[in-house]
Amino acid sequence: MVALLDGRVVIVTGGGRGLGRSHCLELAAQGATVVVNDAGVALSGEQGDSDTPAAAVVGMIESAGGRAISDASSVSDWDAMRSLVARTVETFGRLDAVVNNAGILRGREITTLTEADFDRVIDVHLKGTLTLTKHACDHWLEVSGSGGDVTGRVVNTTSGAGLIGNAGSVAYGSAKAGIAALTMIVAMEMEPYGVTANAISPVARTRMTEHAAYPGARDAVEPGQWHPLDPENASPVVAWLVSAESGWLSGAVLRIVGNTLMRMTPWAADESSAYQARSGGRLDVDEIGRAARHMFGTLPRGLQPAR
Asked: For every residue of the chain, which 3-state class applies, written as one string?
């Protein structure tokens, strides 16, 4: 029986722990060759303590009969990500997908945020997602231009903080909102070349979210017991998105909450709330209050705006 990802080669950033590790193991179980990128160092007491997190995950994949290599480059390093794509193609002869998962968290409200906090979060999340995506797309464009068959897949990681907002995460939410926009734009630009781009928004318990107020986030879980916040819940979605089978879907953001998958709807104009200037020209400043009350449902009774 042929596995879903047999023959496909995938780079996963932030693949040493949490969501990234779950993705790598699932992709390998589905037959993919996995390039595990993680710039982190091992934490005392973890499996693979003498190695990097990426090397530990590679060992787990190889022990299960899969194929993988590790990489410790920073995702925000433009040249390093170019080299990672080149190394992957040179080693395995192809690149089929990238999963942009690497991230850090600097929880700050706007009044306590520092410039260094903001720059670091944007550097890793937004620039890091852009950098690997850009170099992968350059490769696929070259393959397509040479007459090769391309089924390139970009899977990005956004968050509810970027899609619907979350107090205390102004930098993180800004980066994640940018990733959602980046996903849609890459989908538009790369469609002619056989490349899709989609994003996931997983609700999961990881080192980055261990202090989040998710219901059940601190519940003890028995070994082998399913938990709605397990990072593994998102990984089958990633596996399907990087497969050749998913080629009809692009530009989507999928929210994963436990065992439920939902489509996130992007910003759209609410035409039912439209208020048109009474003069037929531009809106007059005196009309803006009336227009706002109309749009947000607080227009005084008996007053009907001109359409």
From this structure: CCCCCCCCEEEEECCCCHHHHHHHHHHHHCCCEEEEECCCCCCCCCCCCCCCHHHHHHHHHHHCCCCEEEECCCCCCHHHHHHHHHHHHHHHCCCCEEEECCCCCCCCCCCCCCHHHHHHHHHHHHHHHHHHHHHHHHHHHHHHHCCCCCCEEEEEECCHHHHCCCCCCHHHHHHHHHHHHHHHHHHHHHHHHCEEEEEEEEECCCCCCCCCCCCCCCCCCCCCCCCCCCHHHHHHHHHHHCCHHHCCCCCCEEEEECCEEEECCCCCCCHHHCCCCCCCCCCCHHHHHHHHHHHCCCCCCCCCCCC
172 catalytic? Reply is yes
At 307 the pLDDT is: 41
Catalytic residue among 176, 243, 246, 250: 176
Entry pTM: 0.87
pLDDT in tens, the chain (307 residues): 789 999 999 999 999 999 999 999 999 999 999 999 999 875 544 544 457 999 999 999 999 999 999 999 999 999 999 999 999 999 999 999 999 999 998 788 999 999 999 999 999 999 999 999 999 999 999 999 999 999 999 999 999 999 999 999 999 999 999 999 999 999 999 999 999 999 999 996 655 444 454 455 555 556 667 667 788 899 999 999 999 999 999 999 999 999 999 999 988 898 988 999 988 999 999 999 989 988 888 755 555 444 4
**Catalytic entry in 159, 169, 235, 250:** 159
Catalytic residue among 70, 76, 169, 172: 172
